[in-house]
Amino acid sequence: MIDLYTKHLVVQAFEYGDHVQITSFFDLVRYHNQGAAFSFLSQAGGWQRVFFSAIALFASVVIIYLLRKHAAQKLFCFGLAMILGGALGNLYDRLTLGYVVDFLFFHYETYYWPAFNMADSAITGGVMLLLLDSFKKQKVPT
């Protein structure tokens, strides 16, 4: 919900390509990403919309299955839930707009990180939680 709300605010306040400097290393922007991470396949001619939507739907089904199967593993499930929320947020954009709205833009001098959104942040945070969970000691059944 945070992802959809922040994207809505950006779409209402910015025109495509608008760029507002907030700090020396962070800007708010409005970019449209028709591809995947780092605009991968963004110039592929349109088929990527269906492809990435299908991947998001398939991943969502797998994640829901894993959430049900591993409900007792709280950190694991929280990481999966963050990934699911991010995937669904970007899927919503892809299905309703044909692209994903990105608006967070970090940079340092001449180095730029590709713009991203709250859904991307949730996916990244979820993956980090899954990695953290993978390093926890597993209890051996006795």
Could you describe the 3D structure shown?
The protein has 142 residues and is of the alpha+beta class. It has a domain at 45-142. Helices cover 54% and strands 15% of the residues. The chain has four helices and four strands. A four-stranded antiparallel β-sheet has the order 1-2-3-4. Helix 2 (47-69) packs antiparallel against helix 3 and helix 3 (74-97) packs antiparallel against helix 4 (118-135). The longest helix is centred in the middle third of the chain and has 24 residues, at 74-97. The termini are far apart.
Topology of this structure?
Blueprint: H1 2-13, E1 19-21, E2 26-33, H2 47-69, H3 74-97, E3 100-108, E4 111-112, H4 118-135
Antiparallel strand pairs: 1-2, 2-3, 3-4
Please provide a brief summary of the model.
This protein has helices at residues 2-13, 47-69, 74-97, 118-135; strands spanning 19-21, 26-33, 100-108, 111-112. The chain is α+β, with helices and mostly antiparallel strands and 142 residues long.
Measured by DSSP, the beta-strand proportion falls in: 15-25%
What's the β-strand tally?
4
Low-confidence stretches: none
Strand order of the largest sheet: 1-2-3-4
Quick one: overall form? Answer: globular
Report how far apart the termini are.
Answer: 42 Å
Level of helix content? 40-55%
* H/E element order: HEEHHEEH
Name the structural class.
alpha+beta
Q: Could you tell me the mean pLDDT?
A: 88
Number of helices: 4
Largest sheet: 4 strands, antiparallel
Return Rg in Å: 17 Å
Main location: membrane
Keywords: Aspartyl protease, Cell membrane, Hydrolase, Lipoprotein, Membrane, Protease, Transmembrane, Transmembrane helix
Transmembrane segments: 50-68, 75-92, 112-132
Family: Belongs to the peptidase A8 family.
